[in-house]
């Protein structure tokens, strides 16, 4: 495989509804796309770095820069010939970090390679489901407003809901939701907002244990594996790690410390679908739960997330919603909610194509060629 040319495209999308988290409120979504033209066909990838470096150290402007100045030029070297996607990715090993930018490159390479082979990403990864359980993510708000938002999601057909939480107002909100919806599959996500050394924080988190939650996601800081281990030892509810799991080394450390009962698996956070599959396999080997997480991604990224969510070890559902919950319109044909589930794209490549009018709305496009 040779990469002949590339385009890096910056879009700015508005979210259908703002989403409040412990790191701030998201109301718009920068999207950086990577288009690679290879001698085996062309492919698209989506970088899922957010506007600001709150969820992780990556952010959209920085990811766009590293794609333009470092990652893509390494693929375009005149002497660069690769034996498929994984070999091409090995040429990028000298660039430290930037997993979301790397994931976008991987997605574009896989899209081109798999499409030329007539294979879907889902089948290539080993997915075993044709559709996956959809999940609605509900942002921070007052208890009555959160209950109203959950009611709207349940009425729309969602059977699984994840509520964002922060210290001090968590129990009131989650108790109100659980009282109104005793049967919904409910989880919570703190995005690391609590501090393990705070007795009030531990008391609040222990108070969630009687509410029949699917999971408590990332209560403490990403590097606080010991704090997570102590909390998990005190709870029956599974503690899931998200931001803490940056690769196999981090997962192995969490397993050794018994820091969690499972992980929230996001391909973009760990460098792509191939790395996500390796993490999934390690979780299955170790008896850990797997929850399929999303990144407010647009249609290309969501196709990749759905393929990962369809892996056999994903046993706690996830928070992947349909396009209509985030973007109107999406950058691809929409991912649709039907009977509480979303179909996993089965077409060759990543399974979806950009809408024809998307590139006309680009904020900027950088074109690069081999040599």
Provide a concise account of the structure shown.
The protein has 371 residues and is an alpha/beta fold. 35% of the residues lie in helices and 22% in strands.
Comma- or semicolon-separated keywords:
371 residues; alpha/beta; TIM Barrel
Strand order of the largest sheet: 5-6-7-8-9-10-11
- Please tell me the CATH architecture of the largest domain by its name: Alpha-Beta Barrel
- SS field, number of helical segments: 12
User: Roughly how many Å apart are the termini?
Assistant: 16 Å
The largest β sheet comes out as: 7 strands, parallel
Determine the CATH superfamily of the largest domain.
Enolase-like C-terminal domain
Find the CATH topology of the largest domain: TIM Barrel
Portion in helices: 25-40%
Q: Low-confidence parts, pLDDT < 50 over ≥5 residues?
A: none
What count of domains describes the coordinates? 2
Tell me what portion of residues adopts beta-strand conformation: 15-25%
Question: Can you write the helix and strand succession as a string?
Answer: EEEHHHHEEHEHEHEHEHEHHEHEEE
Determine Rg (CA atoms, Å). 20 Å
The 3D shape can be described as globular
CATH class of the largest domain: Alpha Beta
Number of strands: 14
Mean pLDDT: 96
Descriptive report:
The protein has 371 residues and is α/β, with parallel strands linked by helices. The chain folds into two domains: 3-118 and 355-369, Enolase-like, domain 1, CATH 3.30.390.10; 123-343, Enolase-like C-terminal domain (TIM Barrel, Alpha-Beta Barrel), CATH 3.20.20.120. The chain is 35% helix and 22% strand. It is built from twelve helices and 14 strands. The protein has a seven-stranded parallel beta sheet. Strands 3-2-1-14 form a four-stranded antiparallel beta sheet. A three-stranded antiparallel beta sheet has the order 4-13-12, with no helix packed on it. The two termini are 16 Å apart. The model has no long low-confidence stretch (mean pLDDT 96).
